[in-house]
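okkk here we go again. third time trying to get the zinc ion bound version out, last two times i messed up the smiles copy paste (missing a bracket lol). double checked this time i swear
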Amino acid sequence: METKCDSCGSCGMPFEKAEDHALRDINNSYCCHCADIGGGKRTFY
Ligand SMILES: [Zn+2]
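finally!!
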């Protein structure tokens, strides 16, 4: 069963509002902490 993407794909932070998403884009799978200013995923593993 797939879960709807309502949390960060990297750190798992739940999205409660658009501002929580990178670039405030609700279609962005990463949160504002995990994506850089270009909306890409940071590589901090
Ligand atoms: Zn995150």
